[in-house]
From TrEMBL:
Family matches, as SUPFAM superfamilies: P-loop containing nucleoside triphosphate hydrolases
InterPro entries attached to this UniProt entry: Gtr1_RagA, P-loop_NTPase
Protein name according to UniProt: GTP-binding protein
Source taxonomy: Eukaryota, Fungi, Fungi incertae sedis, Zoopagomycota, Kickxellomycotina
Hydrolase in keyword set: no
Biological function: GTPase involved in activation of the TORC1 signaling pathway, which promotes growth and represses autophagy in nutrient-rich conditions.
Family: Belongs to the GTR/RAG GTP-binding protein family.
An annotated GO cellular component: Gtr1-Gtr2 GTPase complex
One example GO MF annotation: GTP binding
GO biological process, one term: cellular response to starvation
Keywords: GTP-binding, Nucleotide-binding
Subunit structure: Component of the GSE complex.
Keyword Nucleotide-binding: yes
PANTHER family for this protein: RAS-RELATED GTP BINDING RAG/GTR YEAST, RAS-RELATED GTP-BINDING PROTEIN
């Protein structure tokens, strides 16, 4: 949800339909609501409602269609355009949406994305602008405690936000995390990451170094997705990826039906062939036992 031109269809197309950031310039305004269903992590079906943000549609969502639009919502993603002409009217619309959500889906989770952050190149100013939104939004939504992310289709910030969103939707996440950590320790890997196959969003990661944060892997998501699009434009298929130097070896391989795995080992004694054999050995376990 969000005003026309905020970037809703662009982000959906980047994450779920292999668009590049450049391709989004061709998108027209969304007419009414565009429904799509994507399979995610095996059994999970995501029903995405991309609600066109032109005034006439917004009026309709908040009035005649309110129960249809705001009923049975699991997650509402509200997209603010950083460059909006009138922040007050934007906040008003946001309040109206959350008020309807409070009536029809009070258990929904709300994420607010302050989008087009690339328009503010200076990192300090970026953070200051985001903080303004955080403070304003914290005052407004007492029923929902929205998480606020700064995003842009031009960098990995969009992958960061969407990975957080879908992470919460995968039902058996804690079991997957436990098994991944076991795999990591058994194979002496320093870092292991699972990516969803189609979107390349980070599903979960395990690392020996607790100071590593998820954003490190978002750059990998963005890079691989971009590289994979380039491969398919050249009618080639991306298979796997390997780097080896004196400090570490890194491997990205297809893993289960719905995931890719990234394994980093820092022990020079461990040959990449051994890591590959370990990945193969774990494949069936993750696929059959965890159904992913
Ligand atoms: N600079 C910049 N432009 C963006 C970004 N995301 C989207 N855009 C541009 O914003 C324009 C509008 O994007 P859309 O995705 O069609 O907007 P929308 O929210 O779906 O609009 P409606 O369908 O009318 O509600 C497009 O030209 C995109 O290329 C971003 O992160 N940064
Ligand atoms: Mg749209």
């Amino acid at each position: 949800m969000g005003r026309s031109g905020a970037g809703k269809t662009s982000m959906r197309s980047l994450i779920f339909s292999n668009y590049s950031a450049h391709d989004t310039r061709r998108l027209g305004a969304t007419i009414d609501v565009e429904h799509s269903t994507v399979q995610f992590m095996g059994e999970l079906s995501l029903n995405i409602w991309d609600c066109g943000g032109q005034h006439k549609y917004l009026e309709n969502y908040l009035n005649e269609q309110r129960e249809n639009i705001f009923g049975n919502v699991e997650v509402l993603i509200y997209v603010f355009d950083l460059e909006t002409a009138s922040r007050e009217s934007e906040y008003q619309l946001y309040d109206d949406c959350l008020q309807k959500l409070g009536i029809y889906s009070k258990d929904a989770k709300v994420y607010t994305l302050v989008h087009k952050m690339d328009k503010v190149p200076d990192p300090e100013q970026k953070e200051a602008r985001l903080e303004l939104y955080r403070q304003a939004l914290a005052k407004r939504s007492d029923l929902f405690k929205p998480e606020v992310f700064g995003t842009s289709i031009w960098d990995h910030s969009l992958y960061h936000a969407w990975s957080q969103i879908v992470h919460r939707l995968v039902p058996n996440m804690s079991t997957i995390e436990r098994h991944l950590e076991k795999f990591r320790t058994l194979t002496d890997a320093s870092e292991v990451v699972l990516f969803e196959r189609a979107t390349f969003l980070v599903v979960c990661y395990m690392t020996a170094d607790m100071s590593i944060t998820q954003s490190k892997y978002m750059t990998v998501s963005q890079a691989i997705k971009t590289y994979r699009n380039k491969c398919s434009a050249a009618q080639l298929t991306f298979q796997s990826f390997e780097i080896r130097n004196k400090n570490y070896s890194l491997l990205i391989e297809p893993f289960t039906k719905s995931t890719y795995i990234l394994v980093i080992t820092s022990d020079p004694e461990i040959e990449p062939a051994v890591t590959k054999a370990n990945v193969k050995a774990a494949q069936l376990h993750f696929q059959d036992k965890l159904m992913i």
